[in-house]
């Protein structure tokens, strides 16, 4: 069974919380023009999750198995030394949140 990005995100957040990471996720809101995540300045493409624990900060972009990374997302990941995770990365994800 393929996970949706939302299901995958819930798994990652649950795993991060088990290992005492603080997690930030900025949810979209429905507007008259559809779903929008309000951001300002250069915020378009900001990573899906920010995980923080004991001075460590991780910027995570989540994609489904066949999800595409936009140019803006790639730019943020490059600037932040961010991480792209997909459902097939669960073993790696577990190792990262355990450290």
Structure description:
- Helices cover 33% and strands 24% of the residues.
- It has a 4-stranded mixed sheet with strand order 1-4-5-6, with helices on both faces.
- It is globular.
- 16% of the residues are buried.
- The chain has a single domain, classed as Trna Endonuclease, Chain: A, domain 1 (3-Layer(aba) Sandwich), CATH 3.40.1350.10.
- The model has no long low-confidence stretch (mean pLDDT 89).
- The chain is of the alpha+beta class and 99 residues long.
- A hairpin with a 2-residue loop joins strand 2 and strand 3.
- The chain has 3 helices and 6 strands.
Please sum up the structure shown:
With 99 residues, the protein is an alpha+beta fold. Helices cover 33% and strands 24% of the residues. It has a single domain (5-25, 44-98), classed as Trna Endonuclease, Chain: A, domain 1, CATH 3.40.1350.
The structural domain count equals 1
Nearest-angstrom radius of gyration? 14 Å
Low-confidence stretches: none
Shape: globular
Question: Any key phrases for this structure?
Answer:
two-stranded antiparallel ribbon; 33% helix; alpha+beta; 4-stranded mixed beta sheet; single chain; Trna Endonuclease, Chain: A, domain 1
List the helices and strands and how they pair.
Elements: H1 5-18, E1 22-24, E2 29-31, E3 34-36, E4 49-53, E5 56-62, H2 71-80, E6 83-85, H3 90-98
Parallel strand pairs: 5-6
Antiparallel strand pairs: 1-4, 2-3, 4-5
